[in-house]
Amino acid sequence: MSLKNVPKVELHLHLEGAAPPAFIRGLAKRKNMDISGVFDADGGYAFTDFRHFLQVYEAATATLQTPEDYHRLTLAVLEESAANGVIYTESFLSPDFCGGRDVGAWREYLHAIRDAADQAEREFGIVMRGIVTCIRHFGPEKARQTALCAAETAGDWLTGFGLAGDERVGKPKDFAYAFDMAREAGLRLTAHAGEWGGAQSVRDALHDLRVERIGHGVRAAEDPALVEELAETGTVLEVCPGSNIALGLFRSWRSHPIGGFFDKGLKVTVSTDDPPFFHTSMTREYDRLADAFGWDDAVFTTLNTTAVNAAFCDDDTRAALL
Ligand code: ES4
Ligand code: ZN
């Protein structure tokens, strides 16, 4: 049985990372760009580990060069999400890739993405909101410029600010200024932590950036006191099990910590991260979790209610999802 038609809420999706390989191949061909190293023999994305993944991601993203490219990308991504039963999605958007952190250029990219999101809502019934993300391995100065782009466009659609990229580079504290700027602008906050860094990395994101959600957070499982803190503070985890398994962080679905986290009452949600890169979809995530942990519709309803309550949208939008 497939859980394809179960309504799903996704909080952690990188827009460029959701680009179908054929879409990127088509753009590269039209622009006469040679990005053959990006693909494997089957035409999928090819990478060996997380660092290589980030390089391939950036090489594929180099084909996206105009607001119109992002308009088409957003429509394609949302159509695919809706086909998997996703009714609401929060997507990470990167001014680094959309106009090189120039506020004026960023406004044009954001306008195109929003326009595509409005069209997708009318045509496919899926609701999208945006989270501007800075990229850790690009450094704190670029993060500040990214936060300025976010602050200038904050509102009812661009609702959050986040930190992605290589968790092994730098410390959350280096990004505190950018996060303070985003918080001042009314943006809600999340950060990737506890994926390539351990429990201390999650603590640092919580205490130094004061985020209300953590992207991944799965390595908190190594520290029972931190699990306790996550439970007590009601921190929401954007867990992406298929991504973790594809990148070799855990060997199997059954050994993934999401099962134990749920049993302990942590606020867990399920997302795909970068679905074509990890050969996954929201349907596959749900199907594998059902197989691994015996989760039924009641569990998935709990996960989705948690996700709706943790979504960075306004309360009217939230109420329509519950
Ligand atoms: C990421 Cl910068 C970036 N892009 C896509 N997926 C990611 N995961 C962590 N950082
Ligand atoms: Zn991610």
Automatic annotation (TrEMBL):
The keyword Zinc applies. Its EC number is 3.5.4.4. Residues 7-322 form the Adenosine deaminase domain. The keyword Metal-binding applies. SUPFAM superfamilies: Metallo-dependent hydrolases. It holds the Pfam family A_deaminase. CDD domains: ADA. InterPro entries: A_deaminase_dom (IPR001365), Ado/ade_deaminase (IPR006330), Metal_Hydrolase (IPR032466). It is an enzyme of class 3 (hydrolase). GO terms for molecular function: deaminase activity; hydrolase activity, acting on carbon-nitrogen (but not peptide) bonds, in cyclic amidines; metal ion binding. Its cofactor is Zn(2+). Keywords: Hydrolase, Metal-binding, Zinc. NCBIfam families: aden_deam, PRK09358.1-3. Belongs to the metallo-dependent hydrolases superfamily. Adenosine and AMP deaminases family. This is Adenosine deaminase. The lineage of its organism: Bacteria, Pseudomonadati, Pseudomonadota, Alphaproteobacteria, Rhodobacterales.
